[in-house]
Amino acid sequence: MSGIEGKVVAITGASSGIGEATARLLAQRGARVLLGARRIGRLNALANEIVEAGGSARYQALDVTRRASMQCFIDEATEAFGRVDVIVNNAGLKVDEWDRMLDVNVRGVLHGIAAGLPRMRAQGCGQFVYCASRFAVHAISERLRQEAGGDIRVTVISPGLTESPTAIARAIAFAIEQPEDVDASEIIARPTASPH
User: Fold this and answer.
1) Domain segments of the chain: what residues?
2) Is CATH 3.40.50.720 what the domain over 8-188 is classified as, yes or no?
3) Per residue in 68-88, pLDDT tens?
4) What residues are annotated to the active site?
5) How far apart are CA 69 and CA 169, in angstroms?
6) Model pTM?
7) Which of 115, 139, 147, 189 is deepest in the core (most CB within 10 A)?
């Protein structure tokens, strides 16, 4: 039995890349996933794919720059699955989209914390995972770790230059499946040297 099996995982930015790969991998390992992003068509296709493969998935439109949208997303996870065990704050933008970068990469993470932390505190456990190499989010995550208490784990994953989104999805799965008394607080994923 995997440490992931049966967990409820809410994933932002789930319509492509790391979020999509993470949703597939965690669902294959028995997680119940709620997918959030702006591209509903892609979320619908991914949720259907997961369900057809025997997994459990739901999806909802999500704009992480709006706190109310993030709150609705976490509420949906709780209503659909009864709880929220893990929030993967994965939504992000490419460098050429600087105008929205702070809203998504920093405020979006803060909105995820604001929406999820009260639920996790009420449950007595939970975990936040964030995938980025942004210093502001690293600082936010470290402060959250200090203030959230011992029952809520916080993991920062810095992707580096990896070959595929699946490599980061495996790092996320690794963090989630650790025993409750182990906090994988920071994972830096780097490609191994070429065997040639």
Assistant:
1) 8-188
2) yes
3) 999 999 999 999 999 999 999
4) 130
5) 24
6) 0.75
7) 115
